[in-house]
């Protein structure tokens, strides 16, 4: 906001602006932290996975998206490679990143909101709280993953989501 906008601003408008700007500032701080972690990541000589395949080739700059309570961020890390084997990213474990798109705090927020009522109400509450809109499918998928339970999506949702 410019000085003239601020001078004519109501408290309500200022609070809305600061809430939105504050969330973006938090997202930028998180992105800066992740970028610094990527710069500090040291190359390992060899990484062996659960498949017992040694990966000696290292390629920095492999990225993945992460949706957090403060917005989307990009995580850059070194990928360790071997022919006919999946890439390994030790930095994912160091940062305790989830295997999927949604961060653990975002998963908890979804589980908390959905447990309190219908998906539509949860979607609106999440939009107010974290400033992001998640679709019904995203909420369901996040809820199943966030539950930490091995069961089908349909049976899980029948048990936990009010119909």
Task: Please write out the topology.
Blueprint: H1 3-7, H2 11-40, E1 47-48, E2 54-55, E3 57-68, E4 71-81, H3 90-94, H4 104-115, H5 119-130, H6 136-147, H7 153-160
Antiparallel strand pairs: 1-2, 3-4
Helix pairs in contact: 4-5, 4-6
Class derived from helix and strand content: alpha+beta
Radius of gyration: 20 Å
What fraction of residues sit in β-strands?
15-25%
List the total number of helices.
7
| Unreliable sequence segments | 149-154, 159-163
Mean pLDDT: 82
- Kindly state the percentage of residues in helix: 40-55%
How are strands sequenced across the largest beta sheet?
1-2
- Major sheet size, sense and barrel closure: 2 strands, antiparallel
Total strand count, please? Answer: 4
- The topology string of helices and strands comes to HHEEEEHHHHH
How far is it from the N-terminal to the C-terminal residue, by CA?
44 Å
Shape: flat
Keywords summarizing the entry:
single chain; 163 residues; alpha+beta; two-stranded antiparallel sheet; 7 helices; 52% helix; disordered C terminus
What is this structure, in a nutshell?
This protein has 163 residues and is α+β, with helices and mostly antiparallel strands. The protein is built from 7 helices and 4 strands, in the order H-H-E-E-E-E-H-H-H-H-H. The strands form 2 sheets. Strands 1-2 form a two-stranded antiparallel ribbon. A two-stranded antiparallel ribbon has the order 3-4.
């Amino acid at each position: 906001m410019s000085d003239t906008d601020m001078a004519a601003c109501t408290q309500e408008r200022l609070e809305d602006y600061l809430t939105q700007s504050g969330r973006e500032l938090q997202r930028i701080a998180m992105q800066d932290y992740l970028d610094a972690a990527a710069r500090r990541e040291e190359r390992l000589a060899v990484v062996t996975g659960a498949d017992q395949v040694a990966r000696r080739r290292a390629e920095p700059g492999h990225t993945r998206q992460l949706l957090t309570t403060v917005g989307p961020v990009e995580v850059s890390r070194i990928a360790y490679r071997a022919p006919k084997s999946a890439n390994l990213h030790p930095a994912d474990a160091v940062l305790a990143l989830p295997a999927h798109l949604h961060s653990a705090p975002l998963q908890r927020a979804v589980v908390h909101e959905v447990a309190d009522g219908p998906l539509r109400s949860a979607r609106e509450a999440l939009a107010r709280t974290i400033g992001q809109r998640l679709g019904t499918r995203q909420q369901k998928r996040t809820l199943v993953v966030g539950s930490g339970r091995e069961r089908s999506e349909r049976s899980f949702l029948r048990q936990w989501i009010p119909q």
